Amino acid sequence: MFSSSLRKYSRSITGVIILSLVPMAMMSTAQADILTTEEIYAQHALDEQRGKIRNLLARDEVRERLVDMGVSQADVDSRIDSMTDQEVRQLAEGIDSMPAGEGFLGFVIGLLVIFMLLDIAGATDIFPSI
């Protein structure tokens, strides 16, 4: 009696086991790319350049000027985050090449122009009237 009931359910049990193993066979294996030292260094340098831009724009006189123009610090941070890697590099190089205290107002105006262009392109909405 035991063997006949076992035979009766053996096909059902086998089917359930096979069906439960099918999703495991369909799972893909995890893949990871190898990061080179140059890639890690480039990302670190880019993070440092973004920090440099943030520090410059967090200065009291710059922040006051931006607030006078209707731009909040949160908007500035979101703009910096939305900049491409190339834009960050160019801006950071511009900061490095500026003599101390010279051309600072021009830099801020140039930065505002970049912000306005990003706003016009639809990347952000800091200046709602543009």
Major sheet: size, sense and barrel closure?
none
SSE class: mainly alpha
Low-confidence stretches: none
Spatial extent as radius of gyration: 29 Å
* Share of helix, binned: over 70%
Rounded mean pLDDT score? 76
β-strand percent reads under 5%
Q: What is the helix/strand order?
A: HHHHHH
Question: How many alpha or pi helices?
Answer: 6
Describe the structure.
With 130 residues, the protein is mostly helical. It has a domain at 37-121. It is built from six helices and no strands. The protein has helices at 2-26, 37-57, 60-68, 73-82, 85-97, 104-121.
State the main characteristics.
elongated; 130 residues; mainly alpha; 6 helices
Q: What does the secondary structure layout of this molecule look like, with pairings?
A:
Elements: H1 2-26, H2 37-57, H3 60-68, H4 73-82, H5 85-97, H6 104-121
Summarize the structure.
By secondary structure, the protein is mainly alpha-helical. It has helices at 2-26, 37-57, 60-68, 73-82, 85-97, 104-121. The longest helix has 25 residues, at 2-26.
